[in-house]
Amino acid sequence: MALIGAYKNVPCKLPADIAEELATTAKKLVENGKGILAADESTQTIKKRFDNIKIENTIEHRAAYRDLLFGAKGIGKFISGAILFEETLFQKNEAGTPLVNLLHNEGIIPGIKVDKGLVTIPRTDDEKSTQGLDGLAERCKEYYKAGARFAKWRAVCVIDPAKGKPTDLSIMETAWGLARYATICQQNKLVPIVEPEILADGDHTIEVCAAVTEKVLACVFKALNDHGVLLEGALLKPNMVTAGYECSTKPSTHDVGFFTVRTLKRTVPPALPGVVFLSGGQSEEEASINLNSINLLGPHPWALTFSYGRALQASVLNAWGGKKENVQKAREVLLKRAEANSLATFGKYKGGAGGTDAGASLFEKKKKKKKKTYVMMIF
């Protein structure tokens, strides 16, 4: 259905044509049965992935791996968009074909990671703020010219009830940064994916995670409203509501679905086209099964789908191993995992895709900084 004229009087003060373009793109990204492939690992992060399969982290290997992902025939049936690292947006494969062209061939919308990573908020107990607002508008213009049509910005909060985390300062910093990023993106015709991740580190219960996630999301949407963000032209990328990975009581997939849906209903306006969940260290199979449980509780006012990185790629990397002769096999693994998540968006995934390997945990525990010891010298 045409949207011409639908956004002439929106409070976000965007030109009607830009508002219409944003809303159209956002809707396409959460099209029925499709989700987003997060292939935006930084050079440092992808090194960890490559180390696991014992291949060198070179620009050639990075291009070959992204070529494997984007060149899988039929992947566009299950994937609507792909989040790229800046290097990838301008990169070509061995044959000289721009990698974004491979996405276009499958009808997949290219996106771009625009944040510059995390830094500690001064005078906090290692709570984090996200860098990258400086120069973001100019970068967005260049990304749009290169073919990107949406962006992603990750912020994080940590749960530690004993230390009062997340603090109100951390939550407000998360909300403000995401809202400011979203407005800059929309002014430059990129759909912002708003990602306030509640890390799964800790021994907290699912009930505690639900309470914290609700508080954070409420604050984020208040900030988005204050900044005049066009909700119809944005997406949310939250964590599912789960217990901390060190919690002694593991919730059922039904509980994950129930608390996740309840939290969204309490905080997310129905004007938002969709929610694209991050996997948060869940195994590939857990991420699919929990997404299925969430959608079994529908119908919902928004599309509830996926934006997975490791939960779509872990088995693919293992199947590939950096060898050309394994590319087709690895692509078949990718297609099976993508199809499983597609089925989960309809609540129709029965489990079992990928076998036992898909059940391996992908959780990476946050490394704690060593405390410095100071010795007082008395003379």
UniProtKB/TrEMBL annotation:
One Pfam family cited in the UniProt record for this chain: Glycolytic
Sample GO molecular function, one term: fructose-bisphosphate aldolase activity
Keyword tags: Cytoplasm, Glycolysis, Lyase, Schiff base
Cellular component, GO annotation: cytoplasm
BP terms from Gene Ontology: glycolytic process
Keyword Transmembrane helix (UniProt): no
Catalytic activity: beta-D-fructose 1,6-bisphosphate = D-glyceraldehyde 3-phosphate + dihydroxyacetone phosphate
Enzyme Commission no: 4.1.2.13
Superkingdom of source: Eukaryota
Subcellular location, principal: cytoplasm
Similarity comment text for this entry: Belongs to the class I fructose-bisphosphate aldolase family.
Protein name, per record: Fructose-bisphosphate aldolase
